[in-house]
Amino acid sequence: MNHEGMIQPSxxxxxxxxxxxxxxxxxxxxxxxxxxxxxxxxxVLRIFVMVVLGICFLYPIIALLAAPTRSxxxxxxxxxxxxxxxxxxxxxxxxxxxxxxxxxxxxxxxxIMVGGGTILAIxxxxxxxYAMARLQFPGRSVLLxxxxxxxxMPNTVxxxxxxxxxxTVHLLNSYGPIILIFGFFPFGVYLAYIHFRxxxxxxxxxxxxxxxxxxxxxFLRIALxxxxxxxxxxxxxxxxxxxxxxxxxxxxxxxxxxxPLPIGLMQLISTSQLFxxxxxxxxxxxxxxxxxxxxxxxxxxLLVFLVAQRYLQRGTIMGAxxx
Amino acid sequence: MATVxxxxxxxxxxEVHHSQKKSHRVRRRLSWDAWLLVAPFVILLxxxxxxxxxxxxxxSFTSTTSGGFAGFANYHTVITNFSFWSSFEDVGILLLxxxxxxxxxxxxxxxxxxxxxxxxxxxxMFIYYxxxxxxxxxxxxxxxxxxxxxxxxxxxxxxxxxxxxxxxxLARQSSVTLVLALMLFFExxxxxLLIVYGGLNSISGEVLEAAKIDGCxxxxxxxxxxxxxxAPWIGYMALMNFAYGFQLVLEPQLLSIIGQGLxxxxxxxxxxxxxxxYSIGNIGAAAALSIIMLLITLGIAFVVVTRTSxxxxx
Amino acid sequence: xxxxxxxxxxxxxxxxxxxxxxxxxxxxxxxxxxxxPLTVWVDAPRVSAVKAFEKAYPNIPIKMNLISTTVSNSxxxxxxxxxxxxxxxxxxxxxxxxxxxxxWAASPSIDYAANLTNLVPKSVVNGYNHDAIAACEIGGQLxxxxxxxxxxxxxxxxxxxxxxxxxxxxxxxxxxxxxxEIAKQxxxxxxxxxxxxxxxxxxxxxxxxxxxxxxxxxxxIDLNSPNCTKMVNVLDPLIKxxxxxxxxxxxxxxxxxxxxxxMTPGPTWFGVxxxxxxxxxxxxxxxxxxxxxxxxQNLTGDYGGGLWTVSSHVxxxxxxxxxxxxxxxxxxxxxxxDFAPTFPAYGPDEGPWLQKNVVGSTYFADxxxxxxxxxxxxxxxxxxxxxxxxxxxxxxxxTVTPALDRGETLQQIWPTxxxxxxxxxxxxxxxxxxx
Lengths: 323, 314, 435
Known about the structure:
The complex is a heterotrimer. Chain A is mainly α. Helices cover 71% and strands 0% of the residues of chain A. Chain A folds into two domains: 12-84, no CATH class; 99-314, MetI-like (MetI-like fold, Orthogonal Bundle), CATH 1.10.3720.10. Chain A contains 16 helices and no strands. The two termini of chain A are 16 Å apart. The radius of gyration of chain B is 25 Å and the shape is flat. Chain B has a domain at 84-263: Orthogonal Bundle (MetI-like fold), CATH 1.10.3720.10. At the A-B interface, helix 1, helix 2, helix 3, helix 6 and helix 7 of A face helix 1, helix 2, helix 4, helix 5 and helix 6 of B.
């Protein structure tokens, strides 16, 4: 859509100018806000609604964040309260006391497999998304439909056969297969496909062809430099999908030493005194400890969000790219 | 780059004749190059998608006890199971409650952010996203905290609607559905907000300017311009979430742990499939149920894909 | 931007390399062999048992893996099922935290748990309380070694009983009468809970045929048996009087009313894990006495207990080591007395364990009464309820608990529950008789 103005001069300054022009064109109210000292009634209402919704989204999260600062006895009182840093310290010492600090091992494992998987997902999704969007080849539309259908395929269908495949080549308990499967990210291919459809005019490719560039050359010299946005988005979504994946590593990495965080977290929960009353565990794992473990587990996702924020919040996931 | 492009356009006209002669050779090379670019994806697609799917189909017609051809026996086992229809009913009602909440909620959030393109909008977007980071096992702690009236930070709300115990919530099918719907909304809204907002952002300024000149007020612009233009993204969101909700496993499982077994381990069809596969040890029946679900999902996906413009949007 | 392209093509090369590499690597270390390190899967509290074994047998190399249990047994089942599909990967020794797991692990379709009948000396098996090892005896074969044991006794608050002038009940009619008395005289206090599957301690103490095996694959489910209904008739009035809590034992709601739990039938581990650690009842108040029984029926129920299994896929030296391991952790005082936090199922370890954990504890009100209660309860557990592939306790939680919460009586729920039990039994491939 809107091929005019798709490809903008890429110097940062003119880019900024373009952004401002675009913003004003899209929403005249912003423009007015910057000139007029008083706010429009609609704007006030909108801000109010957004803040109220924001509180609804944030309040439970704050309660979770505050939990590690409280003691279990204090948690039983309910509500929301901020305790002390000493409690956080205690909770962390309990987590680290579980199986000699295996928590850090889980963290490291997750970084390795999700990092590898994300890079692979980008490396696979971008070229295939480009090819499906801008090249004609036999089987293209079938591939497109299969890609979309794969995104809705039930996991149960996949788990057993994938396990058998991996087990046949004796690669259980190694990260290779996990990274490969994390790298297989149809949603990323779809994102890249939409990205190139919307940002890369076919004329540009044809012109490059006239210049005698090979297709791979066109991809490397013309499409890739335009794909930062898609890389950020595919990377972000692949990262989140991998970081939160439970069942695949559970099945493919039966050894706890090799497990990623979600499995570790499940292990903490299931071994905790909250559920395993007669266990006699050497550390105390109650709500504050489990909450802390959960918070540490999800923190990287929020960090990656902040890093990718520029691309995510420009929000041009499937839309026109302005830079 | 813009200059490059103009340059090529002018040359293009001159070379039309020449290019037609080359076109056959170009196309062959082109299709080889294209396959090279998609090859890694296609290989993985076979390993992690096609082979497993074919395997599941074969398993669904194989007897787990004898290993021979079972005809439709596995399908019969599944359909006559006492939890079969009730699990579809559970998930069906959940989808009816949750999908509208999700779609309306996400579109509303996206419109609000779309109308607030400054630091404040960006901040709110981040805030709306945060719960999405808790998807999966981490969600467990959050909800354990939230729905247990004894420890809940929203104790006052729960008391206000007359809930005093955790069982008071989880012992009723209707409130289980509601809790699951909220859980799914809370963990999913942020991610889908990013996508739908992307759709809104791609609407060109000229279109909106034209609408304004035609005298559209904010509401009319939303109703007649923005919503129709982002319809494909909404359709896409509906389809993906339908698939997710229909195949739900983790959330009812987590809720069941929180509720100490109050929710059946065969609440959703996919959970029933897990029971067949691992607990009962009848992989054939599990595969048959998966195939039934796959067919339903694919059927709906096919209708959505062919009736809407999710794929070939221009 | 050019760097970017390079990175992408490098990435693609890496994928191809990985795909090719998939074909020629060495077998994974979890493949079961007849020699090599002994792979044991345990949950976190059992790590000390493994350490004790390593200390006692320093020349048997152990490879330990920590597993999740209790809330995620279905995931454990998934792993074993997948190992079965692939024909390798099983651990050599495995810990199961629920007794019902053994029926699954020993069933023909899973066949993980090895038959230990000829591998474990008769003297060891005879050392067990017969009702403790019964859970492991499936179809005449010994398929596991029981770790701990949890017969029910009657727990009560000696301080309050003394103040109120009550004596602990000995029979179920006395229990009912005292419960109703407490409801009248001391409203707000509780005498037990029906909030989760642990309610089975009542039904099993009464020999109610909920899942009695009457053939190799035939289950008797007869909730209308007088053995069931007589207990329902005790429980319903107490539920109505409000002295039986509807909260599960280990929940924040229960913790909140814990100080009001003046008595309850409960397993041997309730004293420490429930009263001391969850309810924080002060020291010197809680004690236990002999299990409540029906006149003429010297039976009690039980709640909990884990077990050790050896893989049916090992052989040779590794099998011997696996059996040695299982036997050590299940019966040796070096583990059961020195480390195990729970009441041992192996008879000879009981006395020293009680000495260390009950007499040596400063928490209980009347340690002597407690020791006598524990000793009396061993051997009293009703063995008419085998552990099957489906768990009636779990079905209780999904069927009966919600109905109780809605205010129905057990008598009203009974037909629904009977039907649910039959459904599950059939789903798991059992034939059902109802009379």
